């Protein structure tokens, strides 16, 4: 039997986009840059339109945006940071919606690329959160006391501290930003590659006309995986936001 | 000792052998990286189900904590996936 070969595109074609402007310099502007700007613009426009003619009983888009802000306030800030975290709700809401729209671009036809599947988007986000929680901790608790509360857990015998402080240093100041960036990047990259795999299989079966009897299987899997990718997009945006809130809460209050 | 050095030099010099080892390593990397998080996620959600079954009024916070724990455990499996992609396509 002769099997038609599946033409899986090389990974460079899936992830490296051609520059639109300023090609081959550090300021290269390509599809990923367009998508991140579009996500920020959509977030701004959504909240601006929702807040324009505010009514006491919200209707329509104001209702949706108000329930989103309520979701962030209740699930992310109050549960994790307590009352003093309420000042951070606007920033966390913006962060959540920015990451959410970047993730949702994966399933929108003709765009179909999650901007967060490139580390050039997730690493700056993780760095912003990293610098923020360190600076907030230093400002709130003072330089020495912040590092003491972050690195030295309370109620530990002094002899164990020699072992524990390097571990806490590694875990808090080195692993956290790295894990934030890689978690978001890995989830979105894996989802993108899964969708591409099943789309390529479905296209190969459909176009070549060989083995059409099994075409419903990859096609149905593609539909199910698209739904799953929407869920993962929401979940990863929520996880990034709630972990940011946890780190900020530790910087502000220093444990419950 | 001399044969070990000879093997290492032969491996380093042979491009096809290096590429083959990279492909092998990439497969092993993800396979081994998925073991621990698989067990961990099962434990997390099992405990979450027990907690909700014991006290249904704490379902909200328990659900949030379960998803938080899931994402932290999943991150390790995904770091393995990133290692796979790095080894296979750029190694």
From TrEMBL, chain B:
Annotated positions for site Reversibly protonated during proton transport: 74
Compartments it resides in: Cell membrane; Membrane
Q: Which chain regions cross the lipid bilayer?
A: 28-53, 65-87
Domain V-ATPase proteolipid subunit C-like, by residue range, is 24-87
What PANTHER family does the record tag this protein with?
Answer: ATP SYNTHASE LIPID-BINDING PROTEIN, MITOCHONDRIAL, ATPASE PROTEIN 9
Instruction: Provide any one GO MF term from the record.
Output: lipid binding
The name of this protein is ATP synthase subunit c
Q: Which UniProt keywords apply?
A: ATP synthesis, Cell membrane, CF(0), Hydrogen ion transport, Ion transport, Lipid-binding, Membrane, Transmembrane, Transmembrane helix, Transport
Stated family:
Belongs to the ATPase C chain family.
Q: What does this protein do?
A: Key component of the F(0) channel; it plays a direct role in translocation across the membrane. A homomeric c-ring of between 10-14 subunits forms the central stalk rotor element with the F(1) delta and epsilon subunits. F(1)F(0) ATP synthase produces ATP from ADP in the presence of a proton or sodium gradient. F-type ATPases consist of two structural domains, F(1) containing the extramembraneous catalytic core and F(0) containing the membrane proton channel, linked together by a central stalk and a peripheral stalk. During catalysis, ATP synthesis in the catalytic domain of F(1) is coupled via a rotary mechanism of the central stalk subunits to proton translocation.
Asked if the record carries the keyword Membrane, the reply is: yes
Keyword Transcription regulation listed? The answer is no
GO terms for CC?
plasma membrane; proton-transporting ATP synthase complex; proton-transporting two-sector ATPase complex, proton-transporting domain
Membrane topology value: Multi-pass membrane protein
